[in-house]
Structures are given as C-alpha cells and as structure tokens.
Specification:
Strand content: under 5%
Helix content: over 70%
Distance between the termini: 18 Å
Number of helices: 4
Structural class: mainly alpha
Shape: elongated
Order of helices and strands: HHHH
Length: 86
C-alpha cells in the first residue's frame, strides 16, 4: 500500500508540474496528458494490481525527470507509451 501511495504522489506531481493542451508541444500540453495519466493510475490503483503499479513506477519517475529537464517531446512520448499499458 505504501508503494501505491508513492506512485500516486509521483503521478500527481507530474500532473501538477506539467501544462495542458492536445498537441503536446508545450508545458500546457504536458499537463493535459499528465491529467489523463493520473486518471488511469487511479483506476489501476482501485483495481488493486500492485504488481503492475510497481512495474510502472520507475517509468513514472523517468517521465518526471524528462519534465524537469523540459524535454517535452520525450515526456509526451513516454506518457503515451505508459498510458497504453495502463
């Protein structure tokens, strides 16, 4: 359960620090994607599949690093790939 909370906090942090839109070229675009990813993580959390959550948590951290470095295209691509698995 502790790991689940950590993953959700990371996802919430990504949502908070990223922008919103649909093209994924700006910080605003990233916020929109992050919100969608957070919703999917919340659905996964309610499913109770802790194994899957833990396997995806490293990728969430990597996305956060990309966002911090303002590597918007890479962060968008990584979020899209991650959401396919959610």
């Amino acid at each position: 359960m502790k790991n689940l909370i950590i993953v959700l906090l990371i996802a919430a942090g990504i949502y908070y620090y990223m922008g919103q839109s649909s093209k994924c070229e700006t910080e605003e675009d990233l916020k929109n994607k992050a919100a969608e990813m957070l919703e999917k993580f919340q659905a996964l959390a309610t499913s109770g599949d802790l194994t899957k959550i833990m396997s995806l948590s490293k990728r969430v951290q990597d996305i956060k690093i990309m966002q911090t470095k303002m590597d918007i295209p890479s962060a968008c691509k990584a979020m899209d790939e991650l959401m396919k698995e959610l």
